[in-house]
Known about the structure:
The chain is mainly α. Helix content is 60%, strand content 6%. The chain contains six helices and four strands. Helix 3 (50-71) packs antiparallel against helix 4 (74-100). The chain is elongated, with a radius of gyration of 17 Å.
Amino acid sequence: MLFAFISGVILWTFLEYVLHRFLGHEHKGSNFFKDEHLIHHRKVHYFAPAYKKIGAAFSVAVLLFATLNFLLDWSYALAFVLGLMGMYGLYEYVHARYHRKGPVARIFIILRKHHFYHHFHQPKLNHGVTTRFWDRVFGTFHRVQTVTVPRKMTMDWLMLGDEIAPDYARHFQLR
């Protein structure tokens, strides 16, 4: 069962990349995910309402469990779905935290720079939020030294008065 759970966790990181890249950016035309995602890009503090995310996640979880239950023992199907949905929940938490709270460890500065480069510089690169792995695999990785943040889109945690806080000055600058 542990293998099934870990497989669900890993699958989420792949889905995170695929959904973000292909539905959020490369898909021509409109879809629910892309519409919400592009609002988030224009208004960096905007996140889709929780009821929309929970509804979509619940639907996927039920359908996935029902499908896997035909192929696997119910306990393995459940472990897989719990791993996938647990990682999705962690993704939502981490993504919101990138935008709302300062980093607590070096890895979170690295991942934030990766994510905010995508937001503020090049939306065709750096699609991963919880990992850079799939960007490396699929050639959309860009190593980030410094992220230039538009002044009108600064995150509260980044600033000290009108300037970048000293703790973040070597990683971020204002435009």
